[in-house]
């Protein structure tokens, strides 16, 4: 049986995306990519956070297929979605609205 490109490759070294964080960005991702499964989007967000926080190359992304994670990052950046999520999270963190 062929495995999904989004199947977890190895255990992620980071905790899962916290519910409080996911609740903030899920609607943005859903509006930008309405056909994407929310569980898959959450894994991709985890992969992007891993890359951003560790500075590791895309090839080292442990949560999902590295090529898919990089392509998603580029698409979200080009569409402005990444900037929207970043600003939303910055404001929430400044206001101590998230428990991460």
Structural notes for this entry:
- The chain has 100 residues and is an all-alpha fold.
- Helix content is 59%, strand content 0%.
- The chain has one domain (19-94).
- It contains four helices and no strands.
- α1 (19-32) runs antiparallel to α4.
- The radius of gyration is 13 Å and the shape is globular.
- The N and C termini lie far apart (37 Å).
Can you summarize this structure?
The chain has four helices and no strands.
Descriptive key words:
mainly alpha, 100 residues
Computed over alpha carbons, the radius of gyration is: 13 Å
Described by strand count, sense and barrel closure, the largest sheet is: none
Please state the structural category: mainly alpha
What is the number of E strands? 0
Order of helices and strands: HHHH
Q: Report mean pLDDT, rounded to a whole number.
A: 80
Give the secondary structure arrangement, pairings included.
Layout: H1 19-32, H2 38-54, H3 66-79, H4 81-94
């Amino acid at each position: 049986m062929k495995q999904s490109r989004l199947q977890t490759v190895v255990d992620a070294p980071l905790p899962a995306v916290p519910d409080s964080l996911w609740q903030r960005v899920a609607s943005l991702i859903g509006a930008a990519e309405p056909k994407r499964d929310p569980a898959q989007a959450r894994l991709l967000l985890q992969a992007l956070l891993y890359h951003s926080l560790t500075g590791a190359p895309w090839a080292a992304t442990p949560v999902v297929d590295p090529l898919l994670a990089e392509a998603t990052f580029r698409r979200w950046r080009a569409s402005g979605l990444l900037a929207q999520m970043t600003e939303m999270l910055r404001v929430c963190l400044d206001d101590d609205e998230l428990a991460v």
